[in-house]
């Protein structure tokens, strides 16, 4: 039996996001977000689910902070709903929204839990979307105003800031694939939105530096891993393209100040070129203090002409899948982290999301989610392998603290280590919660 041990100063925690857990979408002056609009559009979200109630964390945050404390977490990652602060995206501040986040943050600090705050986790004010959303560069200005307000309002309380969560999801998944809000399907639009999200990130980092705010700032891109089916150059190059859509496309501009040329050429062939203004890449490549990494799944890929955007087909190798139909592929977690180190050096990394979807319900007040424990064991082992290979990982935040609104899949998919009964809103600690808590306490686990 192998023991997997983590450094004594390794930070452990869990993550959530505003639209997925808060509810109270029409309370205390909150403005409408694009996910309120999208979830209320027939056919967009499973079962017509919306975030109107979600986990009702807006009213139950003290109970949730106790769950985080009882877990033994060092850090809690949450996101701020931009429309709670600026209901119209810009202009007048909604003090009741600000007050809510002070109560949440104060409750965390009182229990010795470090808040890690994501500024943009997809709930863009609808008022900004009505003016073009992230396709309109004015939204960048609005984001900088929002970020600047939050930096100064919470200076000294929040010391780990994340500008943008998973820009690939907010650009390509939301505006090319069309599965997330606002649901466009246009590659040029998505490419420009991806660029504007990166500019917004860089502008917020510069504002943070210029304002001498205490703490650290980064962003949290999502990554996946395509392992070439064979050593054939076509398979290797197809997988490189698939990986680069999440990796190099969103990392090169930040760490190298340029887009990856092999992908620029590929997108050009597909009719899409990012609209870059003078100074954009200089702004985007503002140095960051840490990198958030979100990893869930990977797979084996093979070249197939005209398959998808990258002539890349997924091969079903028969790997086990979670209940959201994603392959369980911890090897990919190890490989993508080593590739990040090799490409971008040793920037401090926090795993800001990693988790498994399993939909067990409580029986006699318990949830025997042992497959989620197995997922955690294999992925934490892959993570430690990367650390032993020199990757500078500082912490791990499980996605998610509790079951919540899983975007287009609504409440049908459960990632939580705490079960939520959406009828009663009762929380039930799952077996994985207890296993994770022991791992945090011991700083190790046995494979
Ligand atoms: C090629 C076709 O693809 C169609 C679907 O493509 C994807 C890709 C990725 C996702 C996805 C969902 N999550 C979990 C969330 N991360 C942030 C947090 O809010 C979690 O709820 N991460 N990635 C969904 C769909």
UniProtKB/TrEMBL annotation:
GO terms for molecular function: beta-glucosidase activity. Substrate binds at residues 20, 121, 165, 296, 399, 406-407. The active site is at residues 166, 353. GO terms for cellular component: cytosol. PROSITE patterns: GLYCOSYL_HYDROL_F1_1, GLYCOSYL_HYDROL_F1_2. SUPFAM superfamilies: (Trans)glycosidases. It catalyses: Hydrolysis of terminal, non-reducing beta-D-glucosyl residues with release of beta-D-glucose. GO terms for biological process: cellulose catabolic process. Pfam families: Glyco_hydro_1. The keyword Cell membrane does not apply. Signal peptide: none annotated. Keywords: Carbohydrate metabolism, Cellulose degradation, Glycosidase, Hydrolase, Polysaccharide degradation. Its EC number is 3.2.1.21. Belongs to the glycosyl hydrolase 1 family. This is Beta-glucosidase.
């Amino acid at each position: 039996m192998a023991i997997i041990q983590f450094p004594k100063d390794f930070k452990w925690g869990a993550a959530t996001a505003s639209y997925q857990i808060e509810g109270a979408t029409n309370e205390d002056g909150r403005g409408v977000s694009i996910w309120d609009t999208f979830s209320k559009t027939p056919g967009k979200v499973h079962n017509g689910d919306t975030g109107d109630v979600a986990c009702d964390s807006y009213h139950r945050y003290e109970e949730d902070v106790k769950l985080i404390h009882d877990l033994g977490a060092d850090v809690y990652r949450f996101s701020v709903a931009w429309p709670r602060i600026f209901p119209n995206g810009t202009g007048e501040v909604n003090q009741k929204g600000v007050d809510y986040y002070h109560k949440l943050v104060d409750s965390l600090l009182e229990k010795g839990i470090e808040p890690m705050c994501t500024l943009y986790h997809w709930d863009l004010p609808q008022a900004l979307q009505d003016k073009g959303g992230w396709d309109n560069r004015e939204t960048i200005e609005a984001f900088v105003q929002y970020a600047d307000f939050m930096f100064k309002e919470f200076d000294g309380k929040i010391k780990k800031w994340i500008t943008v969560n998973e820009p690939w999801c907010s650009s390509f998944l939301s505006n090319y694939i069309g599965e997330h809000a606002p649901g466009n399907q246009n590659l040029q639009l998505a490419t420009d939105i991806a660029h504007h999200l990166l500019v917004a990130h860089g502008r917020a980092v510069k504002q943070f530096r210029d304002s001498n705010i205490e703490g650290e700032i980064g962003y949290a891109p999502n990554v996946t891993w395509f392992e070439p089916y064979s050593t054939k150059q076509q398979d290797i190059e197809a997988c490189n393209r698939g990986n680069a859509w999440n990796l190099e496309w969103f990392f090169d501009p930040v760490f190298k100040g340029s887009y990856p040329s092999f992908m620029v050429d590929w997108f050009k062939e597909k009719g899409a070129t990012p609209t870059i203004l003078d100074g954009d890449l200089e702004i985007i490549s503002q140095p960051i203090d840490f990198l958030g990494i979100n990893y869930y799944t990977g797979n084996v890929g093979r070249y197939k002409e005209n398959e998808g955007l990258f002539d890349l087909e997924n091969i079903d190798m028969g790997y086990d899948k979670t209940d959201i139909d994603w392959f369980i592929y911890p090897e990919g977690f190890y490989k993508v982290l080593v590739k990040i180190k090799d490409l971008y050096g040793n920037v401090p990394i926090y795993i800001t999301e990693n988790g498994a979807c399993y939909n067990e319900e409580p029986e006699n007040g318990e949830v025997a989610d042992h497959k989620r424990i197995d997922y955690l064991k294999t992925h934490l082992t892959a993570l430690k392998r990367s650390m032993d290979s020199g990757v500078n990982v500082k912490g791990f935040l499980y996605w998610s603290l509790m079951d919540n609104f899983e975007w287009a899949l609504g409440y049908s998919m459960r990632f939580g280590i705490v079960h939520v009964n959406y009828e009663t809103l009762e929380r039930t600690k799952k077996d994985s919660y207890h296993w994770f808590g022991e791992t945090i306490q011991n700083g190790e686990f046995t494979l």
